[in-house]
């Protein structure tokens, strides 16, 4: 695994840490990132989120594997998460905002993004068979606890224009 220094971070100007609205930032590495077997680009989705409802998508991260642990893992973890429809998200998470957020069901063994995964990718195969970044890990409730509460991701489609103008 290779680490990169970050030259610049641009936090969305309307980010609200209390509501988690606009929970997105752009990071610019200080050196060129070379594509190889372990590093590849992903497309910022231009497909509205409803297309992905009920799709199995992938969340990856280096964060902890349960809510009570502060430790991270040595190997990149991944879990398949089903994109949930807005009404299911709203009923489970009162602060859910369907314009700025997308949520996903926990994996088959209660797996989900957890502490240390924030900012990581939530990716789905698009209609052309390519990976689209549809979400960025934002927050969850009691990850890895066995309770089937959905994880919440920033809705990348909502911010695609801002990303294009800012990156």
UniProtKB/TrEMBL annotation:
Q: Name one Pfam family in it.
A: Trypsin
Q: Which SMART domains match?
A: Tryp_SPc
Name one cellular component (GO) term. extracellular space
Q: Name one GO molecular function term.
A: serine-type endopeptidase activity
Q: Which Gene3D superfamilies match?
A: Trypsin-like serine proteases
**Belongs to which family?**
Belongs to the peptidase S1 family. CLIP subfamily.
What sequence ranges are listed for the domain Peptidase S1? 1-167
State which residue ranges cross the membrane: none
Matching entries from InterPro entries are given as:
Peptidase_S1_PA (IPR009003), Peptidase_S1_PA_chymotrypsin (IPR043504), Serine_Proteases_S1 (IPR050127), Trypsin_dom (IPR001254), TRYPSIN_SER (IPR033116)
UniProt keyword terms in alphabetical order: Disulfide bond, Hydrolase, Protease, Serine protease
The question of whether Magnesium is a record keyword is answered with no
Q: Which example biological process does GO assign this protein?
A: proteolysis
Lineage, top ranks: Eukaryota, Metazoa, Spiralia, Lophotrochozoa, Mollusca
What is this protein's name? Serine-protease
